[in-house]
Amino acid sequence: MPIPEKGFVYTGSQEPKPSRAGVQKRSVQILLGQADLVGDLVVPEKATGLVLFAHGSGSSRLSPRNRHVADILNGAGLATLLVDLLTTQEEHIDLQTREFRFNIGLLAERLIGLTEWQSAHPDLSALSLGYFGASTGSAAALIAAAARPQRVRAVVSRGGRPDLAASSLPRVQSPTLLIVGGDDAQVIELNQQAFEALQCDKKLDIVPGATHLFEEPGALEEVARLAADWYRSHRM
Prior knowledge:
Helix 1 (64-75) crosses helix 6 (219-233). This protein has one domain (45-233): Alpha/Beta hydrolase fold, catalytic domain (Rossmann fold). Helices cover 33% and strands 28% of the residues. The two termini are 26 Å apart. The longest helix has 17 residues, at 104-120. By secondary structure, it is an alpha/beta fold. Strands 1, 2, 3, 4, 5, 6, 7, 8, 9, 10 and 11 form an eleven-stranded mixed β-sheet that branches. It has helices spanning 64-75, 88-97, 104-120, 136-147, 185-197, 219-233, and strands at 2-3, 8-13, 17-18, 23-32, 35-44, 49-54, 79-83, 128-134, 152-158, 176-181, 202-207.
């Protein structure tokens, strides 16, 4: 489905794969300018919202933590799209130089492109859109949300670095939930600083006993519960 006037092309997908009742899974390939991105799309039956995941530095759409959260959100009736924000070539370079994983501006630009792609996609455009950011992906999500205030219904950050969004924070209009592990002291402080800079509907939730990666039993489930409640309370 070419869309040249938007500067991006939907280059195809695998056939939908039914999994549990009413849920369809497919791989998608999205061309944003010269960047060829790969993602995994899951759409439950009667979904009303789509959560676009922005993973953190050194991670990918295959992150077991984000995929676990996404699976729980799917169970709550929300569609999810996990995309590698770097191309295959960029990922290979980044493994050697680490030059792309902290390029927050580039990651935000890719998220904005994916937001435009979703708004033009005939099967997805009717879904309200939310972002879920982890680590440095949280900063990219907030920058993109500030750039598209009418498109992004809500933002959730898990163990994120929203402070890296810097000057964009006061311009964010999308309701924003910051989730941090209770034993992640440094990141708590950084999130508190970012929280003060945000001028939107906002909340900071601290999960007791959780560390930065939320590896403790039940920690990711709590993250997913908080995220699902946040999206639902903001009409997704």
